[in-house]
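Regression test attached.
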Amino acid sequence: MRRLQNILNWLRSWFKQNSVEKELGSELRFHIERQVEENIAAGMTPEEARRAALREFGGVEQVKEECRDTRRVNILENLIQDMRYGLRTLRKSPSFTFFAVAVLALGIAANSAIFSIADAVLIRPLPYRDANRLVMVWEDASAYGFPKDTPAPGNFSDWKSRNQVFEDVAAYSFGGSFDLIGDGNPEELAGKSVTANLFSVLGVSPALGRDFQTADDIVGAPLVVILSHGLWLRRFGGDPQIMGKEITLNYERHTVIGVMKRGLQFPDRETELWVPFRLSKEQLTNHGSHFLGVVARLKPGISLKTANANLATIAQRLEKEYPDSNAKVGAFAVPLREELAGDVRPAIFMLVGAVCFVLLIACANVANLLLSRATGRRRELAMRLTLGATRARVIQQILTESTLLAILAGAAGLILSVWGTKFLATLIPAGIAPLAGTGVDARVLVFTTVISLGTGILFGIIPASRVTQFHLSHSLKQGGGQSGVGSGGHKLRDALVICEVALAIVLLTGAALMIRSLQNLYHLDPGFRADHVLVMRTPLPRQKYEAFAARVSFYDRVLANVEALPGVVAAGYTTRVPLTNSGGATGITVEGKPEPAAGDMLIPSTRIISRNYMQALRMKLIGGRLLEQGDAPGKLPVALINQTMAKNYWPSENPIGRRFKIGRYNESSPWITVVGIVGDVHQAGLDVPLRAEMDLPYQQQDFGFEPEYLVVRTSGDPMLLAEGVRQQIWAVDKEQPVAGVMPLEDLVDENLASRKMQVSLLSGFAALALLLATLGIYAVLSFTVAQRTQELGVRVALGAQPGDVLRMIFSQGLKLFSIGAAIGLAVALALSRALVHLLFGVSAYDPPSFAGVTVLLAAVALLACYVPARRATRVDPLIALRYE
Amino acid sequence: MTKPTDLVQGTLDLLILKTIALEPMHGWAIAQRIRRVSNNVLQVNQGALYPALHRLEQQAWIQSKWGESENNRRAKYYSLTKAGEKYLKAEESNWERLSSAIGLVLKTV
């Protein structure tokens, strides 16, 4: 209650400063008038009476000032005064100011930049209505090696009709490319087939025209398309009359019915158009082929847990109803944001932690500097306290100064982060970047301001409270000399340096573990040679290459043409090149094994390849033979398998010559004979575990997967042959789109790009931490040497050898380092467990990393000790004794 | 006039609170009353009185109101708040304990 009253009074003072001021004036005037009357009554003349009254009262202005002080109406004036004073002192010591601002600016910039990324990925709302109610739904086929599988249309359809937790469920095709012909160059566009309700589930509507309707989404309905805002501007010049016009996609006329609102790119930034899915009745009851993306909107008030329980119940029922396809297949939902943020989340958390540590170290450093400076300013502060300044007032002044520093640093940091954010944007997953839009905006600005002010208070409060604790008389006397600096200041500074060392150790071990992981990935044998290989995609338009024979003939002719080019060593086709995607999987039955129960089917990854694909990528042949000319249509169906498949499916026998068939025993598909075993290739990514995989020649059977990637091994720079290869493809089909032409090495790099980025960022922060901690040790020791010059002089005069002096300074530095390192290692051990998901092939407690980091920091710490120690040995006793 | 006894801050607060406990009073009257009641021993310096009044008001022990003075002028009257009354009681008993303790020491030594 009283506190409230306090606050009210205080506020009143603030807002009614004028009236309070007036009241104060009239209150004191009344007092004087009353005294004048009294004096007159006592027999004085009016003039005498007034003079006496005023004399008795003393300084009216002084009283007023004191009254104001008690009401704290002066807080603003004080602040301005302090700021002027602060700016003056900062200007007077430019090197200190520059150093402090630079150190803090680096810390703040790192935080702002990482914040803008974390904001885009984790915090900022997605551009959909009630986006927190949107989830992705997946199949859980862990039993077959697919813990997160793209759902089959049959399952999608059953989830949609049977659930009690979703307002609506929509689906889209996972892949999809459309050749746009006419009106300019032929172009391959990424597009999605979507169910008519997709946009209403997302809660977005077209900027122009109309959304899909159920009538568009039926087999045989007129073909329609909705364009992305970007495509509409880029390709059609933002023509508002586009609605109702026809465009040719994949050789079919589509009517444009809408243009999506700007910035909406679902499910990824590449997608430029959407067409109705037109799933047939047969497809909607197919539970066996898995190729959908499914997005659903939770009913209001339904939690993710409830939704997952409901999905699990439905999945169990489906297991019983469709044992062949659905045995051991579960279903689960993941919030859309989590889905889009994907694998980057742990990395972002790690980086957020790292930049916080960097900022803390920067704060400790500047606090240390301020402490040293404040100690030097003791006399001034003591004088001010003696002259009547309150402790609070002096603390306010010191805090103003530190906050000023922080604001300067914040401004500098913001400029740095503008540049840094651009660099960091590559960290943002494709699904989110266009939706969120990154860069320095109001949110980052607010964050930077808050963090700057926080920093200023954080590193100012320690010296401020410290400095005002000493005894006045003691300080005034002491200020003349320097020999007797209180030990308390030392302790605090030591503690700060210990913290810096500890934090630096934590960051460095984190970076070391990440670097070791990256090294492991680089040294990992991917199972193929990526150098001198050119990659490109030639997706065949389905309408044109409906016939199996047409496709086979296309591949045959392109490969023959390309292999005839000078400079080409080998050329091959495959469904997917390594590191891109698993590229499909097929259930098989192994001859001689009992018919697998439902849900126990073997489902190896499947790749459809050409004869020389293995040679083009220099994959290793472990046993048997590679594909040969004789493996032609109508001949014995053959397959190559990888080591993992050989080991898992034929654990105790030689797989060569064994047979399997696609589907079940009773299926009419032919038996396929294993003729060769090839080395394992990291198909889905370097850090993704290996799966069983089979490679089938494209000519022998129509497997439903089409080779899409052409790989060409060249004797020279692969890009030099890019044009020649393209011409050879067009010689076969001059309308065939060719996309994604690049060296395979780039693809490998891309696969590691985000990890590399994480490593370089973390290493950068760790290096910054190392630098700051070193500076911290150096500053403290230099200060000690300066403070102890007299003592050192006495010691030298009494016969101390330079070695003794060196030892003394070094031992102080090493003591700080050892304590800091011990604490840091303990914290690092505890925290490194959080990194487990980001590590590869290295334990979170990897001894070499921990040892290496300690040695590195120790070496740098020794260096930081050396300079001040050398200075100490050069102390001339004569000068030192006169030093003060 | 003898040199006015220095008043420690807490003591002045106590005197002010006690004085206005009887009735609301303005600053001048408070100073007069303390002087008269103490037989001119305690002279309250205005330079201390007004800041003390403002501080007490800030702490919400007392509250102020503008009113008509005995000489028909507008004056600022101070009166005790509920919290002030409690505080005064506590301080009074404190003071009594303290002064009797000092008295004991002075008598016995």
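Expected vs. actual: identical. The radius of gyration of chain A is 38 Å.
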